[in-house]
DNA sequence: CGGGATCCCCGACGATACTG
DNA sequence: CAGTATCGTCGGGGATCCCG
């Protein structure tokens, strides 16, 4: 599985986003609510993200590993780019 | 469609990669060979990439737009990260 | 509360044949 | 050479139920 494979899947980025915005670890149910998803998908994503050591299951919930945090840092510019790109495409049509 | 949706699809990154490494525009058949894919998938990806103005159909083939080039620039660090990440995971198991 | 099991559905993929 | 049409296959998404 490639990185973009993983990140492209439903709720993968959303989970990273929610975790990076929380100052405390989030529980399974909290994540489920925050990401507005169902246990099935959330469970699959978390398993993949744990397997790849981007997220870990620490005491009292899930949080980003240091790897995960460095990845999020790289994604932010990409996210910014995609925002302006999306709005640009929208206004053109 | 979101950016990662688009980039996560088969051959999307590969096409960007091949185009960014070519110093001249590539024809449909050349891209097909370079990316080791079939016309069906290539056609779909090119259509999406053209719609979103990341790739354009210039004289004598396909090439990146300036948008496309700025996107590729942002992806490179991510790519580097994923390389070391993949090899790290591999050696750990 | 955490998370695995099941089941259905739909859309992406991929091969190939075909047309302008 | 460029691109479209067709069709079977496969895997992910999502809802829901259930057990420890």
CATH topology-level fold name of chain A: Arc Repressor Mutant, subunit A
- The CATH class name of chain A reads Mainly Alpha
Based on helices, strands and strand pairing, what is the structural class of chain A?
mainly alpha
- Any idea what the shape of chain A is? globular
Largest sheet of chain A: 2 strands, antiparallel
Overall mean pLDDT of chain A: 94
Largest interface: A-B, 22 and 22 residues
Please give the count of helices of chain A. 5
Provide the low-confidence segments of chain A as ranges: none
Radius of gyration of chain A, in angstroms, nearest whole number: 14 Å
Tell how many strands the DSSP assignment of chain A holds: 2
Any guess at the CATH architecture of chain A? Answer: Orthogonal Bundle
**Assembly type of the shown chains?**
homodimer
Give the fraction of residues assigned to helices of chain A: 55-70%
Strand residue content of chain A: 5-15%
Please give the domain count of chain A: 1
Tell me the name of the CATH homologous superfamily of chain A: Winged helix-like DNA-binding domain superfamily/Winged helix DNA-binding domain
What is the H-and-E element order of chain A? Answer: HHHHEEH
Model description:
The structure is a homodimer. With about 90 residues, chain A is mainly alpha-helical. Chain A has one domain: Arc Repressor Mutant, subunit A (Orthogonal Bundle), CATH 1.10.10.10. Chain A has 5 helices and 2 strands, in the order H-H-H-H-E-E-H. The first copy, chain A, has helices at about 5-10, 10-20, 30-35, 40-50, 65-90, and strands spanning about 55-60, 60-65. The interface of A and B includes residues 5 and 8 of A. The structure holds a DNA duplex (20 and 20 nucleotides).
């Amino acid at each position: 599985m490639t990185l973009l494979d993983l990140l492209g899947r439903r709720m993968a980025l959303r989970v990273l986003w929610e975790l990076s915005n929380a100052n405390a670890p989030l529980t399974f149910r909290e994540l489920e609510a925050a990401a507005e998803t169902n246990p099935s998908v959330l469970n699959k994503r978390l398993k993949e993200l744990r397997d790849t050591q981007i997220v870990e299951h620490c005491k009292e919930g899930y949080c980003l590993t240091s790897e995960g945090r460095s990845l999020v840092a790289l994604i932010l510019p990409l996210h910014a780019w995609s925002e302006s790109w999306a709005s640009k495409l929208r206004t053109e049509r």
